[in-house]
Design a protein that fits this description.
This protein has about 130 residues and is α+β, with helices and mostly antiparallel strands. The protein folds into 2 domains: about 80 residues, no CATH class; about 45 residues, no CATH class. The protein has 3 helices and 8 strands. Strands 1-2-3-4 form a 4-stranded antiparallel β-sheet. It has a 4-stranded antiparallel β-sheet with strand order 5-6-7-8, with no helix packed on it. The protein is globular, with a radius of gyration of 17 Å. About 5% of the residues are buried.
Length: about 130
């Protein structure tokens, strides 16, 4: 799934004297707060980390911000990131009726599992 990788670092963790050593040294001391991956089906996955380096959130979106994502697109990536066997028992789901500007199109669904929650904004085959 992961073709390209970009790393976002917490600017508070950049050491003094940036010009004192090679770039490899700096990447070893910076704490990554997010990494962005490009999938083979033209989606990007942004992975966010907590202060201990554990994944705390992942965000899936289309590379083309105007293009909506299908169930097939989203579920292929979801099953790679968090296989059903790793999610834990299904606890429940709910419809989301959220309001957001400018187009008021933030409705969606949420699925709650023992180990994670999946929130999809949009409707079937029209996720954003």
């Amino acid at each position: 799934m992961r073709e390209d990788l970009w790393t976002v670092v917490n600017v508070d963790d950049i050491p003094d004297g940036l010009d004192d050593g090679p770039v490899a040294h700096f990447s070893a001391v910076w704490r990554s707060v997010a990494e962005v991956y490009r999938t083979s089906n033209h989606l990007t996955v942004t992975t966010y980390f907590d202060e201990h380096g554990n994944i705390c959130r992942e965000h899936i979106e289309s590379e083309d911000r105007g293009r909506r994502m299908s169930d097939s697109d989203v579920n292929t990536v979801l099953n790679e990131i968090a296989p059903k066997s790793a999610r834990g028992n299904y606890k429940g789901g709910t419809f989301l009726n959220l309001r957001c500007l400018p187009h008021d199109d933030c409705a969606g669904v949420s699925e709650d599992y023992e180990r994670l929650m999946i929130t999809k904004i949009g409707s079937t085959n029209e996720y954003r």
